[in-house]
Design a protein that fits this description.
12 helices; Histone deacetylase; eight-stranded parallel β-sheet; 432 residues; HDACs; transcription; globular; metal ion binding; repressor; 9% strand; alpha/beta
Length: 432
């Protein structure tokens, strides 16, 4: 098949001004393995990082190694019992935890591997530290590709995800921001994040995903939230083979309308790479530039933004795309020709920075998409007036957490507190 020139070949950087970007990376994250035959490969984060460094993007942004999340911090969302289990279970003592393994859904999809707890703490620490820096105005964009594990529930692992770093990051943002928007472009529904904020209007979740006989089986148009959160969960159920142009025709109108009516003061964008063409587990047909257009569009609003990773099971394509998107977040369009890097042989035979669409049939008809958009806009009408949250003062942190820099003067803004400790605080009715 001849690669057709798409409108995205002239992708322009949409910049409000010079963004300050904080990039979080921990070299240890790629040392962990779900198992030889498991599709989830943490090494893709190191592959993406190698491209980022060899393209010279380190000159454009601040690079940090975040402090791993503590048990107390993880328990701001997850149950104490579940986190305790993750910290104690190993491949060697798994037999002692058979009952708990069933209860917490740890097994085939979410195996126990060496260093599981440390892997979770690195993922969580990056997203929480990124959110903390955004809160303090230390950066405009924070990136944590080790995060984005959107399926994890309060007391349950799911879909290769054990710790929901996104929920922990959003909880941190809510301490300073009255409204946070979560956007998910992974091919799978962001069910764990939606479930966590299903009853509040302080977080709007918007997920674009394959729906119908596909994991996790949730995320239909009618799922819109309950109670105060009614209409604050937005789901865009899509079908196989969606391409760049079609995806853009849905993504930009929906996000544009949400920005206009909900007026979030912070955004979290999950950039799952399994919506790319040719993914081992995905069924969409997005090119690298079509995927990156979503990042570019959200960035154009100039709102403090936390960017996290997610799925993606064709490693070379995920690495290419995340590197390209890191360039866009730094107002740079990277060269097509790949620089030499630690994984250069993975990118043969063309050694180019590109993920091309295939000739896959697009099942998303204009009629179907019009029906979806009509339904979404109808629901969004109910959110026209952005909910206001009265915050007199930012609550004091329960436990000091050192900043990623040596400067202790700026290390006061920290996170923490177990569920028990937080329950002791008196909260107003309208506070999340």
């Amino acid at each position: 098949m001849v690669y057709q020139q798409l409108p995205f070949d002239d992708l322009k950087v949409k910049s409000t001004n010079k963004e300050r970007v904080a990039y979080f990376y921990d070299s240890d994250v790629s040392n962990y393995s779900y198992g030889a035959s498991h599709p989830m490969k943490p090494a893709r984060i190191r592959m993406a990082h190698s491209l980022v460094m060899n393209y010279g993007l380190y000159k454009k942004m601040e690079i940090y190694r975040a402090k791993p999340a503590t048990k107390q911090e993880m328990c701001q969302f997850h149950s104490d019992e579940y986190i305790d289990f993750l910290s104690r279970v190993t491949p060697d003592n798994l037999e002692m935890f058979q009952k708990e393994s069933v209860k917490f859904n740890v097994g085939d999809d979410c195996p126990v591997f060496d260093g599981l707890y440390e892997y979770c703490s690195i993922s969580g620490g990056g997203s929480m530290e990124g959110a903390a820096r955004l809160n303090r105005g230390k950066c405009d964009v924070a990136i944590n590709y080790a995060g984005g594990l959107h399926h994890a529930k309060k007391s349950e692992a799911s879909g290769f995800c054990y710790l929901n770093d996104i929920v922990l990051g959003i909880i941190e943002l809510l301490r300073y921001h009255p409204r946070v928007l979560y956007i998910d472009i992974d091919v799978h529904h962001g069910d764990g994040v939606e479930e966590a904020f299903y009853t509040t209007d302080r977080v709007m979740t918007c997920s674009f995903h394959k729906y119908g006989e596909f994991f996790p089986g949730t995320g239909e148009l009618r799922d819109t939230g309950v109670g105060k959160g009614k209409y604050y969960s937005v789901n865009v159920p899509l079908r196989d083979g969606i391409d760049d142009t079609t995806y853009k025709s849905v993504f930009e109108p929906v996000i544009g309308k949400i920005m206009e009516w909900y007026q979030p003061s912070a955004v979290v964008l999950q950039c799952g790479g399994d919506s790319l063409s040719g993914d081992r587990l995905g069924c969409f047909n997005l090119s690298m530039r079509g995927h990156a257009n979503c990042v570019n569009y959200v960035k154009s609003f100039g709102i403090p933004m936390l960017v996290v990773g997610g799925g993606g099971y064709t490693m070379r394509n995920v690495a290419r795309t995340w590197a390209f998107e890191t360039g866009l977040l730094n107002n740079v369009i990277l060269d097509q020709e790949l620089p030499y890097n630690d994984y250069y042989e993975y990118y043969g035979p063309d050694y180019e920075l590109d993920v091309r669409p295939s000739n896959m049939f697009n099942v998303n008809t204009p009629e179907y998409l019009d029906k979806i958009l009509t339904g979404i806009f109808s629901n969004l009408e109910n959110t026209k007036h952005a909910p206001s949250v009265q915050i007199n003062n930012v609550p004091k942190d329960l436990e000091d957490r050192g900043d990623v820099e040596e400067d202790t003067a700026d290390a006061k803004d920290t996170r923490g507190g177990s569920q028990y400790a937080r329950d002791q605080l008196i909260e107003k009715d309208n506070e999340y």
